[in-house]
Amino acid sequence: MSDKLFSDPELAQFYDQDNRWDSDKDFCLKLAGTASSVLDLGCGTGELATVLSRTRRATGVDPAAAMLDVARGRQGSDRVQWIEADARSVRLAERFDLIVMTGHAFQCLLEPEDQASVCKTIAAHLEPEGTFVFDSRNPEFEEWRNWTPEQTRTVIDHPVLGPVERLIDAAFNPDNQIVTYLTLYTAVRSGRSWRASSQIRFSPKEDVAAAISAAGLHADRWMGDWNGNPFKPGAREIIPLGGLV
C-alpha cells in the first residue's frame, strides 16, 4: 500500500496546503461529542487527531513515516499517540469510543480482502457501544472524470516554496474499479517539479457493506455526503456510520 505521494517527504510537504480542513473533519469533531477516546486510522498529517486530542485521548495510525513526521511537528501533537503501522494488521492493547477513517483513506485499499481486513481492525478496537465512520467515493458519481489536467490545475501557497502549481491526470479501469492518477506539483518560481503515480479503488456500496458485515460491524446510517444527507444512488460519497453487531 506504499504510495510515494504520502511516503516521500518531498511530496508529503504539500499535503496540508492541498487538503484543507473540510466538512469531513467538522462532522467527526461533532460526532466525537463526549467520547473519551478516538482512533484515527490513516491519520495522515494528523490535523484531525490533533484537534480531537484537545479534550480526549487520541491515537493516530498511518503507514507513511513522512506523513507522521509532519503530524509530530504540529502544535499540540504531543497529546496524540502516533503509531506507524498498517491499518490492515495493526492491533493495539486498547479500545476506543470512536474510530474514524477520513480523507478517503479507505480507497487506498485496493483489494476486497484489504478492505475486509481494515473493517476487522475497526471491530477489534471498538468499544461495545462505540461508533465508527469512514468515507469512500461513490463510483456511480464518476468523480474521476473531472480529474484531468485542465480541470484540476490550481495553485497552492507553500510556506517555503511560494506558489506551487498542482494538477492531476486520472484513468479508470472498470475491470478492477481502480483509478490510477498522476499528481504533479511544480514550483512556479524555480520550475522544480515533483510527481507521484497513485491508485485508489472505487468500491460500490454493496462491496463496502459486505466488508463491514463480515467484520462483525453494522451501519446504522449510510450517508451520501459529510453534511449527513442520506445515501442515494448517484450520491458523491459512501459514508457508513455504525458500531459492533
UniProtKB/TrEMBL annotation:
A molecular function GO annotation: methyltransferase activity
Keywords noted in UniProt: Methyltransferase, S-adenosyl-L-methionine, Transferase
Domain Methyltransferase: residue ranges: 38-130
InterPro entries referenced in this protein's UniProt entry, alphabetically: Methyltransf_25 (IPR041698), SAM-dependent_MTases_sf (IPR029063)
Signal peptide: none
Top-rank taxon, per record: Bacteria
GO BP of this protein: methylation
Protein name per Swiss-Prot or TrEMBL: Class I SAM-dependent methyltransferase
Organism: Oricola cellulosilytica
